[in-house]
Design brief:
Blueprint (H helix, E strand, L loop, with lengths): L5 E4 L5 H9 L3 E4 L3 E5 L10 E4 L2 H8 L4 H5 L2 E5 L1 H9 L4 E5 L2 H11 L5 E6 L5 H8 L4 E11 L10 E4 L2 H10 L6 E4 L2 H7 L6 E3 L5 H12 L2
Helix pairs in contact: 5-6, 7-8
């Protein structure tokens, strides 16, 4: 009997997400290779509109004492799930995109006179803030959560590894090596973080967990 394909996810999957892999007769090991900590932050003033590029930032802001005041402002965001979380909690979305660079381009071309408050993490990428400042668009950043490595030593060799952030890539490589494993990445930025560790990189069609899982299943079912 052939051994099942062994998949390691560097993020804890929901039961529904894990079931996609189990239904394909894969064996699955999942663990969080990063930990997210919300911060208690102060807001002295808020600009015209808000920017969110992650669900983690939304979840932290929802805990803030000034949440009613914050929710008056309209939002720009990155990611379908970030958008969904904002809408579930009563925020109004003006624009959203799957990638920060695309959102920066939309703002630069359509909203150059609006000022923004960007709720971000401690290791946020420079793409969006740099682009807006280059266009002389007012942007204030408020750090609302921190991302920390949560390293695990893996004692088996998986066939495929699922990566969902550059931070998780760095955390994984602290204790583990990549040899012949195929690495499935949620997007280009995560793939970029892996390029010095392996050439065996496949990028999801859409930047979400489910698309990354489906890309993995498609690869092994070819």
């Amino acid at each position: 009997m052939q051994n099942p394909i062994r998949i390691l996810s560097t993020k804890k999957l929901s039961e529904k997400q894990k079931q996609l892999l189990l239904n394909a007769d894969f064996s699955v090991f999942d663990a969080n290779f990063i930990s997210i900590q919300s911060k208690d932050f102060k807001i002295d003033s808020i600009n015209d509109c808000l920017i969110f590029t992650s669900q983690n930032a939304v979840e932290s802001v929802l805990q803030n004492r000034k949440i009613r005041e914050i929710k008056i402002r309209k939002c720009f965001c990155v990611g379908e799930k970030t958008k969904a979380l904002l809408e579930q909690n009563g925020f109004e979305i003006i624009e959203y995109s799957d990638y920060a660079a695309e959102l920066a381009s939309i703002i630069f071309n359509k909203y150059p006179k609006i000022s923004f408050t960007f709720f971000c993490g401690n290791i946020r990428r420079d793409v969006l803030p740099d682009a807006l400042r280059l266009g002389n668009i007012k942007l204030d950043e408020i750090e609302v959560y921190t991302t920390n490595p949560a390293t695990h030593k893996i004692d088996f060799t998986p066939d495929g590894i699922l990566f969902f952030s550059p931070s998780a890539v760095g955390s994984f490589l602290q204790e583990n090596k990549i040899e012949d494993e195929i690495c499935f990445c949620i997007g280009n930025t995560t793939a970029e973080a892996l390029k010095y560790a392996t050439p065996n990189i496949i990028i999801a069609n859409q930047p979400n967990v489910e698309s990354t899982i489906m890309k993995c299943i498609e690869y092994y079912r070819q």
